[in-house]
Structures are given as structure tokens and as C-alpha cells.
Design a protein that fits this description.
By secondary structure, the protein is of the alpha+beta class. It has one domain (about 10-330): Lipocalin (Beta Barrel), CATH 2.40.128.130. Helices cover about 15% and strands about 55% of the residues. It contains four helices and 13 strands.
């Protein structure tokens, strides 16, 4: 049975609170966008919509690795992604027909993304635009056990996102843009929804006491804005990801505090398509993870293990890392 890393009701509560707070915010007074110089408009149009969609996916999808992304070239400098979430079965497998079994699956995630877009060329050269994104994901599906080792997991999830933009003037051009573009191309808030169907194939096997798992997961994302304080900021795009991952869980035979130590980790490649690929100027992400956890002999309040984990991820023009607490719950 798979593990659900975070209780789903937490995400329902987070979604309600985030939506109520966001809709209660004061609306920006939109200036006349026709006063914004054409050179500035072109640069804003090249980044706004794609950034909102890509960063909402990175922050909202529980499968995307959180951490610090550092980019070389382009406009993005550093992207910080913090999230808590996971997915897993919420009931024991039940008979479907013959030897085929099934179990319901729930998904949930709460993510926060911060990043700065630095204009290095063009009319806006030397100025910066900051993005602050909150995203909440919820969804579910089923896991179909075709054999004891092979299973398919179709799911559908939704992502609510809120993105706030703040422009930082660093020169005289920036000061002018602050006057004529406030509330239109800069200093705006947009709220989005995304729908994400996915299909995952998993194969599990065991050698001695070591557990292995290979998984291949395809995700499609359609994102649209439904509320914007700016008349010119709207989002409508499509992205998809394909992740192939090999995971190992290795008991060490050592004990600390009376419980067994386990190590393990995974290596994966995620291929990017659509808006996400064009915005990041990359079509794949590699991730290497390692963890060290304590596993009690029996689950304690559904806690299967707890410990530390860290990941390093990279592409052709960016790299990053993350570290934090690694927990697994056996529900």
C-alpha cells in the first residue's frame, strides 16, 4: 500500500483560507495601458503569462521538486519553492475482478514560490520584477493492481493559484514605468485554475531486504486565469511533463533510539513540454535524491518513517537543491 505524506483535509482548509483572503484583497487601480512604451510592453508580454503558468505548476504540483533553482542566462535568476504535500492510497486494495485489485488514491499539496525576473536587455534593462505565488492542489484517482508487482494509477487533480507581481525600479526608465504601468503590466494580482489529468505506471520488486520501484508518470496541465486586477494580464496555456524514476529503499540493519535506520533515494528524469519548456528554455530536469530515515518496528500513529532527505536537480541551463524532513505515513 502506498503512503500519503500529508492529510488531505489540511489542503482543503488551506484552499478555503487562501481563497477567502485573496478575494478580500483591495483591487489595484488600473492605469491607462496605452501610456506604456511599446518596448516595455513587448518585454512584459514575453514573460508574464508563461511565468505565471510555469511557476504555478512548479509550486502547485506535488510531484515537482521544491528547493532553490538557480538559472544561468535568460531572465530568471533564482526561484525558491517551498511545499508540503503528497499522494497515496486511503484504503486497503479491494478485489476488482480475478486477481486484479484496486484502491482509492488522494493527492494534495500546498506550495509557495518566490522569484525575481531581471531584465538584462531591451527597454527595461536594469529593472526587476518580483513574483510571489501560492498554489493549492487537490485531487484523486485509483490504483489498479494488475499483478503483485505492476500497477496503473490514473488521477485527476485541480490547482488553485494566486500570483502577485511587484516591480522594482532601478533607474529612470523604471521610475517612469512605475508611474504609467502600475496596475496594468506591473503591481498586479492574478488568480488561476489548472486541471491536471495524469497516468502513472509502477513496477515494484524486492531483492533481499531492499525494495525497488520504477515509475513512469505523464501529467498534462491546462491553466487559465479567472480573476485579474489587470486588464492586460491573462493566462491561458498548456504544459505537460513525463517523469521516469527509479527509487530504492535500503534497510541498514543498524538501530538508533531503538528503531531501524534505513537509507535510499531516487534518480529521475522529467521531460518538459509546452509552455513550461519554452519558459524555462529547457526540455528536461534530472533529479538525484538521498535520504536517511528511522523506521519503527510498527507504524506509530500511521507514521511509517521519519528522517532527513536532500535532492540535487539540474538541466541544461539551471541547477538547484533542496533539503528537509522526509516523512512517510502508512494509512
Amino acid at each position: 500500500m502506498e503512503n500519503l505524506r500529508t492529510p488531505i483535509p489540511l489542503f482543503i482548509a488551506c484552499f478555503v483560507v487562501l481563497f477567502v483572503v485573496s478575494t478580500a484583497q483591495a483591487q489595484f487601480a488600473t492605469r491607462d495601458a496605452s501610456a506604456v512604451p511599446p518596448g516595455a510592453i513587448k518585454q512584459f508580454q514575453n514573460v508574464i503569462g508563461d511565468h505565471v503558468e510555469t511557476l504555478t505548476i512548479l509550486g502547485g504540483d506535488f510531484k515537482a521538486v521544491g528547493g532553490i533553482y538557480t538559472f544561468s542566462g535568460g531572465n530568471l535568476v533564482d526561484v525558491s519553492i517551498t511545499k508540503i504535500g503528497g499522494a497515496g492510497e486511503v484504503a486497503r486494495p479491494m478485489s476488482l475482478f480475478g486477481d486484479v485489485r484496486w484502491a482509492p488514491v488522494l493527492e494534495g499539496n500546498l506550495g509557495h514560490v518566490t522569484t525575481v525576473n531581471e531584465f538584462k536587455t531591451g527597454y527595461l534593462r536594469g529593472n526587476k520584477s518580483e513574483y510571489d505565488i501560492w498554489a493549492v492542489q487537490g485531487g484523486g484517482g485509483v490504483r489498479v493492481y494488475l499483478t503483485d508487482h505492476l500497477s496503473l494509477i490514473p488521477t485527476v487533480s485541480g490547482i488553485y493559484g494566486q500570483t502577485e507581481n511587484k516591480f522594482h525600479a532601478e533607474n529612470a526608465v523604471g521610475d517612469m514605468i512605475n508611474q504609467v504601468a502600475k496596475g496594468s503590466y506591473i503591481n498586479w494580482t492574478v488568480r488561476t485554475w489548472s486541471v491536471s489529468p495524469s497516468m502513472e505506471l509502477r513496477y515494484n520488486w524486492k531483492r533481499l531486504r531492499t525494495n525497488f520501484q520504477f515509475s513512469s508518470r505523464y501529467n498534462y496541465f491546462h491553466t487559465e486565469s479567472f480573476d485579474s486586477t489587470s486588464s492586460v494580464v491573462n493566462v491561458n496555456g498548456d504544459s505537460s511533463t513525463w517523469e521516469n524514476k527509479l527509487d530504492a529503499d535500503v534497510p541498514l540493519g543498524l538501530k538508533a533510539f531503538g528503531v531501524e535506520l534505513r537509507t535510499g533515494g531516487f534518480i529521475s528524469r522529467t521531460d518538459l513540454m509546452g509552455t513550461a519548456a519554452s519558459d524555462l528554455h529547457d526540455n528536461h530536469i534530472y533529479t538525484a535524491n538521498v535520504r536517511l530515515v528511522l523506521q519503527p518496528p510498527e507504524p506509530i500513529l500511521t507514521l511509517k518513517w521519519i528522517g532527513l532527505g536532500c535532492s540535487y536537480f539540474w538541466g541544461d541551463r539551471f541547477n538547484g537543491w533542496s533539503a528537509g524532513i522526509d516523512m512517510s505515513f502508512d494509512l
